[in-house]
């Protein structure tokens, strides 16, 4: 069986690709022109160049494929041009799913996010049934992923698209080249650039466990259903303390109120717009998100897919080790 993986050079996409190749599958990697292909080094896969905005390139990439893992996404908490994130995450997903239908693809795994799910007011872990609406989505990334997931669910209902949806929490681990917003937080903390924290929390999961969850969803998931691929709930203070322990630094002890950080984020975004390059040190959407504890449980995936995850401290350790080995911590200290 030939399988296409979008976003194959990225953090989660390359982990999924590795799982599929190791399982002996015939895998085709879809990447954009100019992408950093470091994560594909040494992997036996077919390489195709294309873009979610180019239907012809998607049709060519899907030719002869029976399976599709759509992992590609624009994962940024701040964008100078918000329309760009919708073009990739919403329009691109719709175009790709329709191309998969036209190509006769028999099975799709779509990578959504826990960002599309509701959160509980009491900070207890949410699950796939916790209600959410577009109005609950904070920021363009969350809104775009919510709309993209709705596109997939609609095509399942209306066209018979054979898609299973997975919702990873906050993956960390090796090969986070960019890095992602979560990976950037690990780099900043390990480099001594986070002397304070806000009162929030995340569900931390190893990227390789997320990748394994994708494969299990393909093998065992029910069409039209979504499955949280999470790990362990940790407060930001706990995460930063673990990073500090790993690098031999004292953990941050200063807790900042959200109302104090928000004006800093507005100023940081304004500076980034004036400079016309780089990303702000803090974002307004990031601060607003941090008002909530983003805790989740993966009971459904464990029960129906046989999913499992390793301890969060191991995911953090693997991330720190990879960032250190590839010079990210030195660059972080110099920033």
Question: What can you tell me about this protein's structure?
Answer:
Helix 3 packs parallel to helix 4 and helix 5 (181-190) packs across helix 11 (312-325). The protein has a domain at 2-174 and 203-232 and 295-312: Rossmann fold (3-Layer(aba) Sandwich), CATH 3.40.50.720. Strand 5, helix 4 and strand 6 (163-168) form a beta-alpha-beta unit. With 335 residues, the protein is of the alpha/beta class. It contains 12 helices and 12 strands. The strands form 3 sheets. Strands 3-2-1-4-5-6-10 form a 7-stranded parallel sheet, sandwiched between helices.
Task: Produce the secondary structure layout.
Layout: E1 2-6, H1 11-22, E2 26-31, E3 46-49, H2 55-62, E4 67-70, H3 82-103, E5 107-111, H4 139-159, E6 163-168, E7 170-172, H5 181-190, E8 196-197, E9 201-206, H6 207-220, E10 226-229, E11 232-235, H7 236-247, E12 254-255, H8 258-275, H9 284-289, H10 299-305, H11 312-325, H12 328-334
Parallel strand pairs: 1-2, 1-4, 2-3, 4-5, 5-6, 6-10, 7-9, 8-12
Antiparallel strand pairs: 9-11
Helix pairs in contact: 1-6, 2-3, 3-4, 5-11, 7-11
